[in-house]
């Protein structure tokens, strides 16, 4: 098959491309230039999409022996991921930009372009598995599993995707890269949000949304306990950085329960107040059997799974949780899994819309 290998400049995508070429596919490497200003280099393990990454990807392609190109997708990335990220925070939600990048860029814009150019599929270095049955499953390396951020992919997109690393641990991938002579074998993984290289999300949002002072109020009494300079700096479940003037009567910590952009209010309460028994979602993508179905759901990247009964109705999804979850934030994804002999299968996903009124 003719395969387009998305090469970020990291070790995972390099090994994925090498495996595809070794399997006899006609592979072409492509690096996505996503930054409008790629002149800065990564700081430690932060950031990506720099000139350094593009050069690392090109060197890896040379070692593998495949053609290599750079596609400028900065404008698409900015509109679909960065602008969406800012707008979601302004609306009181907590987005997952990696999920949106997979949905809108890597497996929509890139895949569409690849198919138009005559490629049969796109291969990436994501840690997830696609079985012979075409079902998306968790990686064997639970610590690196990325099935959560891939759960937005449609059946048609999965049919044209390849994830060769799902059966390997990260240690095995690095060892293979070294054995293949790839210079990225020990390159640090990128962390945090790729377009916020210094890790200061609050500062990034403040520069774009400006300061918007408002009140932090108690969920039970309605009393104003403090002020904030922008509700976008908070997320549901947050405990640190509240800087409240009035401590709780029992001395226990308070947590962010909800963010209301209309009144520019951050509402706080006890840890018990965070408990959610029902999660609703929109823009559902469903691959599983007819619902309602008993399964498990994951409500944050790297979050714990919770047993639930999931019902899908058109583009809407409802998960009745068997065990209450805490820190459920609108804008994140609810991803449903079912366990079988071959591992955890992704049944589908939706973008969480739950607020406190849904409980």
From TrEMBL:
An example Gene Ontology molecular-function term: tRNA-uridine 2-sulfurtransferase activity
Main subcellular location of this protein, as a coarse class: cytoplasm
Region annotated Interaction with tRNA, chain positions: 144-146
Residues marked Interaction with tRNA (site): 126, 332
Residues the record lists as binding ATP: 6-13, 32, 125
Catalyzed reaction equations: S-sulfanyl-L-cysteinyl-[protein] + uridine(34) in tRNA + AH2 + ATP = 2-thiouridine(34) in tRNA + L-cysteinyl-[protein] + A + AMP + diphosphate + H(+)
Pfam families hit by this protein: tRNA_Me_trans, tRNA_Me_trans_C, tRNA_Me_trans_M
Biological processes per GO annotation: tRNA wobble position uridine thiolation
Residues of the active site: 101 (nucleophile), 194 (cysteine persulfide intermediate)
Classification via SUPFAM superfamilies: Adenine nucleotide alpha hydrolases-like (SSF52402)
Ranges for domain tRNA-specific 2-thiouridylase MnmA-like C-terminal: 279-352
InterPro entries (UniProt xref): MnmA-like, MnmA-like_C, MnmA-like_central, MnmA-like_central_sf, Rossmann-like_a/b/a_fold
Entry GO CC: cytoplasm
Residue ranges occupied by any tRNA-specific 2-thiouridylase MnmA-like central domain in the UniProt entry: 203-269
Subcellular locations according to the entry: Cytoplasm
Segments forming a coiled coil: none
E.C. designation(s): 2.8.1.13
Keyword vocabulary terms for this entry: ATP-binding, Cytoplasm, Disulfide bond, Nucleotide-binding, RNA-binding, Transferase, tRNA processing, tRNA-binding
Signal sequence interval, chain numbering: none
Family in the record: Belongs to the MnmA/TRMU family.
Role of this protein: Catalyzes the 2-thiolation of uridine at the wobble position (U34) of tRNA, leading to the formation of s(2)U34.
Protein name (database record): tRNA-specific 2-thiouridylase MnmA
Source organism per UniProt: Mangrovihabitans endophyticus
